[in-house]
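During the reporting period the student researcher (J.K.) took over the structure-prediction task from the postdoctoral fellow and processed the backlog of single-chain submissions. One of the processed entries is reproduced below for the supervisory committee.
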Amino acid sequence: MNKEYIINRLSQSATKKDENFVVNAIWNRIDNLNLKIITQQYIYCKSIQKYYIIDLYFPQIDFGVEVHEKYHDSDYMKVIDDVRFDHIISALKVENINYAKRIVKTYNNNMEDIINQINEIVKEILKIVELTPNLRWLSFDEELELIKKKGEISILDAITFNNINHVKNKLFNYSTGSGKGILKSWYYFKHNKNLLMWFPSKCSDSREETLKKMKGFANILTHDSNEIHEVNINSNLKWFLRHENDKTKRVVFMKYKNSFGESGYRFFGVFRAMGFIDIDINNKKVKARRFIKELNEFTLPK
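J.K. obtained the following structure tokens:
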């Protein structure tokens, strides 16, 4: 079997092709619509006050899968991965969770090796599912009700909203009519004019492709998800001066695409504008607005 051909065929809409292939292969083999699957899920390690993202996570059985692509094939990254693994296990043990984490290595492996790794993980998941009674995937309305009861939304919440109006209507009870017409990417909160709801689209791994598609705009989320860099290659001096001293806080619901090609908006935290930063795009330095994460939770207005 030709690994590259199969992965490319099954991941035409994805940027992390190996990860997309592994996630889809695991999900299709499990074939259980009551088992909730989440890609790119946050977890929190209290001991070091740090968040980590798991590539694939099944919350009902506390089972996570990491996909290690070519990027991980270095002595430096292997040390980082070991530390990260220990922190993830520590984070979930603090919460008294019986957590299992497995790794699929796609680099330096042929297709048969990757399939064998996937099949072994699927066998383990199916055994756990068989021993887990009353397995049920909560509906969107049930997940939303839990968030409203606790009075805050967190990056640990795995809820996804369909569109901007869905966030405004369902979470904040703002009337937005039928949803027709032009939607902005930001709105002021009624109770606080110094606070914005912001709905940026997450930049793909190809920054040049995103800039072309978005007519010169791109919102680049850093690898640790703690900063957003907003690029506007059509900007002029007036644009820079207008935003130079902006310190507005923004409640960010970022549009992203999961490993199944589905788009939606998820809460990414509360960010504050912090001037400008130079970033590299196509071997050129480009000035971008810099937003730094201040909070991982947001208290819902009453």
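The committee noted the following: Confidence is low (pLDDT under 50) at residues 5-13, 75-81, 92-99.
J.K. will present the remaining backlog at the next meeting.
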